[in-house]
């Protein structure tokens, strides 16, 4: 949501890509539809890619989502190479659409447990894009914008408010209840709640706990 808002603010025309990877928290797909309409993107594609066929994560297999707090190790909610897969798909669409700019909302400051959220990953992908595309072979460059990478969660919440976006329309919980409430205790919920509390802003999320 905030990435799209920032891209629009900078004058970019926005094509929004959401991956339906058969994730546990499928409610985020509904949130993505609402956000795309609210932000006013030029086109929104929801692309099916069933990563449950691979498994290997609490988001794509029958593995319990941890509820005991944020740790230092790579958590079981890590989906193998997810952001690499997502950015590759975004790059393919961008090149087909004649764009050289990708935006991704990775964040490494508050939670650096995921290897595909690090600055090295973003920089490495830019290098890969140069040698893997027609754009690159013709001397062009692809820029991967990660404007949230070094921002605290509280600052991201503040940016949403500054852009006039309703953060309550976004979704973070990895293990939502069947009635549509967020669990409130998974890592993603904990980080979200702490960020909004630190920012002194209304979260807008209905939590179970």
Automatic annotation (TrEMBL):
Keywords: ATP-binding, Ligase, Metal-binding, Nucleotide-binding, Queuosine biosynthesis, Zinc. Its EC number is 6.3.4.20. The keyword ATP-binding applies. Gene3D superfamilies: HUPs. Pathway: Purine metabolism; 7-cyano-7-deazaguanine biosynthesis. GO terms for biological process: tRNA queuosine(34) biosynthetic process. It catalyses: 7-carboxy-7-carbaguanine + NH4(+) + 2 ATP = 7-cyano-7-carbaguanine + 2 AMP + 2 diphosphate + 2 H(+). Its cofactor is Zn(2+). It comes from the Bacteria. Binds 1 zinc ion per subunit. GO terms for molecular function: ATP binding; ligase activity, forming carbon-nitrogen bonds; zinc ion binding. It is an enzyme of class 6 (ligase). InterPro entries: QueC, Rossmann-like_a/b/a_fold. SUPFAM superfamilies: Adenine nucleotide alpha hydrolases-like. Zn(2+) binds at residues 173, 183, 186, 189. Catalyzes the ATP-dependent conversion of 7-carboxy-7-deazaguanine (CDG) to 7-cyano-7-deazaguanine (preQ(0)). Belongs to the QueC family. This is 7-cyano-7-deazaguanine synthase. It comes from Novosphingobium subterraneum. The lineage of its organism: Bacteria, Pseudomonadati, Pseudomonadota, Alphaproteobacteria, Sphingomonadales. The gene is queC.
